[in-house]
Amino acid sequence: MRSTRTPAVPRHGRRTHTFLAATGLVAALALTATACGGSSEDTAGDKPGATTSQAARDKVEIPAGLADKLKEHGIDVDDWAAGGWKDWDKATWLSEAKDFVNPVIEGLWKPERMQSAKEADKTVSTQDAAADQDVSDPEPVPVEATAEKTPYHRNAAPVGKIFFDSPEGPMVCSGTVVTDVNHPGKSNLVWTAGHCVHAGGSGGWYRNIVFVPAYNDLGKSEAQLADAPASEIAPYGNWWADWASTSNGWIEGGSETGGAGAAYDYAVLHVKPESGSKSLEETTGALDVDFSAPSASEVSTMGAWGYPAAPPYNGLKMFKCLDRPGRFSLSAGLPTMYRIGCTMTGGSSGGGWFRVVDGETRLVSNTSIGPTDNTWLAGPQLGQDAETLYETMSKTYGGQ
C-alpha cells in the first residue's frame, strides 16, 4: 500500500517567514473546520453522528448490484458474504478488476481493530530520490511535525484517518473532506492518496475502506483510549466508501516505492455513514480543492496534515508540518511534485496539503512519498487529470 514516510534531517532553513505565513494557514483551516458542525465544548460527546460500534459480524448482506459485480470478477457471492471478504488470494486478487467493491460490514472497525492497523508505507531510496536533480530543488531542511490542537473537531474537523484491509492486514492512511462542486453544502467526498485505495501495478483495490473524521478527538494516549467512549474515538462516526476512484497513472505505474505512479498518487472517495442521514460536509465542514497546480515558486507556504503511524509516532494523534515548497521529480518524463520538509512518517499518506488563496484554505496536494530517513514529504500537483477525476466522481456518485 502506499503511505508515506517522512524523515527528520536538518535542511537549509526558512523558518521565520514560514512561521508568519503558517499562522494564517492554521487559522484559516480552523475557521473552515468549525464553520459547519463544530461544537463549542471541549469534549466530543455532543458531536453529530456519534455512534457506538456494534459487534463485528463476518456475515454481510450483499446488494444485488454488488453481487453482479462480484460475479463478474469470479467471486463466489455466498462465500464472500459468509466471510470471504477477509480472504486474499494474491494470484487472483482483483488486479484486473475495474470496479471498486466495498460492502458495509457494520461494526467491523471497532476501536481495538483501528489501533491494530499499520501504516501503508511508501518510501523511496536515496538513489530514487536523487534520480532527477536537474529538475528537483535542493533537499529541504527537515521540519519537525507539531501536534494539532485538541479537540480536533474544533481545529481540523475535515481531517481524519482512513482504515482499510490489504493482503497484509489492516492498514491506515489519512484523508480530508472536500467540497462537491455539483452538490454544494452536501459533499460526501474525501480526498486521499491513490495508494490508500489501490495497490497500483502490482495488485488491485483494497477492501473495507472507512473514513473517520477527527479520529481520537482529544488526542488521548493508547492507555487512555482503552476506556474512551466511541464519541471520542470517532466523534462523527464511521463513513464507508461506497465508491473510490484513483488515476490511471497510479493504477498502471504505482509501485511499492511509489514508482512512476507517485506523480499521479491521488484518489477520491464517496462515502456514506454507518448510520444517520446528514452529508459529511454538513457534519464536519469541507475544503475546496485547488486544481490550478501552481508552481512551487508561487507558493510561500504549504501545510500538510495527517496521522503519522510509523515510529516515533503511533497513529493516534494528528500532526502538521508547514514549509515553503520546492520542486521534486523522480524523472524528467514525469510531472513535477511538491516537496516540503516534514518528519511525519507512514500513516500520514493521503493527508491533505493546504495553502491560503484569497484568505481561504484550499487543498492543493496530498502526501504521497517520502525518504526512508523521514526528513521530507512529496505530493502530486493537482492539475487537469486530477480535476477530471474529481468532477467525474462528483457527477456520477455525488448525489447518491
UniProtKB/TrEMBL annotation:
Coiled coil: none annotated. The keyword rRNA processing does not apply. InterPro entries: Glutamyl_endopeptidase, Peptidase_S1_PA, Peptidase_S1_PA_chymotrypsin. SUPFAM superfamilies: Trypsin-like serine proteases. Gene3D superfamilies: Trypsin-like serine proteases. Keywords: Signal. The keyword Signal applies. Residues 37-60, 114-141 are annotated as: Disordered. Transmembrane segments: none annotated. Residues 1-35 form the signal peptide. This is Secreted protein. It comes from Streptomyces plumbiresistens.
